[in-house]
Amino acid sequence: MGSRPPGLLFLTSLLHIWHCAGGQGSYTIDTVLLTIEPRNTVQSGTAVRLRCQVSVSHSNIPNLIHSFQLTRDDVPIYTKNATEDTVEYAINPARAADSGNYECRVSVKNKAKASNSQKLDVKGLQTPTLHLTTLTPYENEEFKATCSAPEEKGPLIFQFYLRFRTGSPKVIKQLSQGGNSSTATLRLSHIGNCILYCDYEIRLVSGNQKSNSSKEAELIVKALHITPVINILPSNNLSEGDIIEVVCRVVTPPSNTEVFLTKDKVILKQVRAAALSHKFTVREDDSGELVCKAEWGSVQKETSQRITVRSLFSKPQLTVEPTDVVEGDHFKLTCSVTIHDSNEIEKKTMQYSIFKDNTEVANTTTYFTVAQLSASGNYTCNATSHSLTRTIVKESQKYVVKVKVPVSEPVLSVVGGTLFLGKPFLLSCYSQRGTLPINYTLYQPRIPNDVKVVSKPGEKAIFNLTSITQISDIKNILCHATNSRLKPPMAGTGEQLLKWSNIIEPVSKPHLTTEPRMEDISEGYNMTLVCSVQSGSFPINFTWYSTRKGFLDYKISWKLKESHSISNVKGDHAGGYYCQCTNPANKTKRSAIIIIGVKMAGWKKGLIAVFCLLFLMAIVLFLFYKKRLPKLKTRRTGTLSVKAASTKVGRLSLIQAEVNEAANATPGMMGKSIWSEHVSGSESDDNCSTNTPEKREPQYSEVQLRQADPSRVPVKQGTDTVHGEVRNSQQGVQEVADARNISQTETVQ
């Protein structure tokens, strides 16, 4: 057969890749079967084989890959990818650690299926072996014991047991390690024969299993005779200054034995030999236990004795006067002792020395000096007693002298630099100089004192003050600073606040006035609204308002009083006015409302006065003429007039001549003529007046005429009646047109 063309091979490869990628091929996992051979329960050491077989149905997919995974108690232990449908996993030999629930999971491409769980139970554990580094240890000597089970797997817990010939065993050590062996360090204190053995335990998911015990090992624990003997010469009861010798000795010790002499856990001497000797001069504080200790390897044994040291004189005491040492003051240091045994010690033989920072500054009991900053330091004193047999030197306790720098005058200031009267604020009190700690005390009227202690450099005493409403209260604030009970405190006053702080005083309630006075404000003149306050920090903002027109003006001023002018005052300027004031304290105060009335202008008043005067004159003239008119009528005899009650001019009058003319007329026409003329005159008078609201009926009066001259008119006796008409004017004044009764009797001759 010839070789395939390259193009055909390429197409075949592409087809294979397409099938493997899950082209048109389909598949399904039918079953996954897990078996354990030879059986599920076996003895430890048996060879076990796990077989996993998968069955897959597919549509002619070549070289289908199966991914196998074996797990024990859900922990993967074996994985393999194969085209075969079966894999095997061998456990040889099987141990107890191999016990558990096994499962096989097979994945084909993106599908997976697991078998049923199979349990493997391996019975039995290997018996451990015990190995000891020595079978004859000394008491408390350390030795090694190893317990192992080399064929076992997994984490094992080893236990070591001690048993005497009589009595039950007890666990003396338990170790948990990841391997199959464990080594323990043991130390036995019981002298004589004893038995050691070990076992182990394995922890499984199904439960713990315990092994058999190892073979027993018999030990002989030997006594180690290294207990030392201690001797103190000349005696255990001593006086300070005595010289004693302490001897520690071990009888027949083994090689490499060390001997120690200790007191209060301090090693006084140590030798690598059977004995040691140590001489020293005892002091007052040497009373106590002396311990002699022998050590061989890890074994130790000790012996102790107590010594008592009698004090001949007390430990010197250093005192300082005064206790507070202030810069510039004198202070004194005194070194003194108390004699306990005058037979041994004479006071006059005592010698004293005073030291500053381990440098001698005086060899007397008393030291005087002036306190400077350089005098600060650690002071001690020594008291020395000399005799033929001993020399005793004692040192006092250290006394720390710290020269205090007196405090300077404290400075008061407001935290933030600005004090708003009427609001709480923080007050700082600080002395530039002075040794710490410094006590600051704040005094305020009617308020309990407040105390602050400053202990850090640069720190200030901060006091929380409630609101202060008046500047005078600031002057009463005091701050005292002190760092010594022997010095008077330095005082800082509130005057410093007024000098160094920005104090903002709220404005007082403003008062609004006018210029001129409110009762003198007239039309056409100028008016000034003056707003003033009694107190307040500058600048002050003044604002004027009208209750009718609202905002009028706004001014910023550095004065306590400002004004707003209104020129050419008119009537509509009447009404309520007020002003508001504020300043950096941000508290707005408002004045009371004033009511302004605007008087009428003078020329208007004069004009009204002229009109009133003219009106009064008219009334007077009217009354005058009204009073004089009857007299004028009586003077005009023979005159017949009709006068209206109103102010109209129209009149109806019949003078004597007309009467005479009427008399000369024919008698039949005289009455008629008089009536007609009367009526005509009355109508003419009405035409000159304003029409009355309603027409009234004519009223008639009887007129008596004189007799006519017989020589001129026909004689006719009797009385003719003349009717006059009375009308009302539009003003409501009755107009009368009547012919008053004129009775004039003429003798007709």
Offer a quick outline of the entry.
With 749 residues, the chain is mainly beta. Helix content is 12%, strand content 44%.
What does this structure look like?
It is found in: Cell junction; Cell membrane; Membrane raft. The protein is mainly β and 749 residues long. It folds into 6 domains: 31-123, Sandwich (Immunoglobulin-like); 129-221, Immunoglobulin-like (Sandwich), CATH 2.60.40; 227-310, Sandwich (Immunoglobulin-like); 317-401, Immunoglobulin-like; 410-504, Immunoglobulin-like, CATH 2.60.40; 511-596, Immunoglobulins (Immunoglobulin-like). 12% of the residues lie in helices and 44% in strands. It is built from 6 helices and 54 strands. A hairpin with a 7-residue loop joins strand 51 (640-643) and strand 52. The protein is flat, with a radius of gyration of 72 Å. Mean pLDDT is 80; it is low at 18-24 and 637-749.
Keywords:
single chain, mainly beta, Immunoglobulin-like, 6 domains, 6-stranded mixed β-sheet, 12% helix, flat, disordered C terminus, signal
Low-confidence stretches: 18-24, 637-749
Q: Judging from the principal axes of the Cα atoms, what is the shape?
A: flat
Helix vs. strand class: mainly beta
Query: According to CATH, what is the topology of the largest domain?
Result: Immunoglobulin-like
The tally of structural domains comes to 6
Radius of gyration computed on alpha carbons: 72 Å
Instruction: State the total count of DSSP E strands.
Output: 54
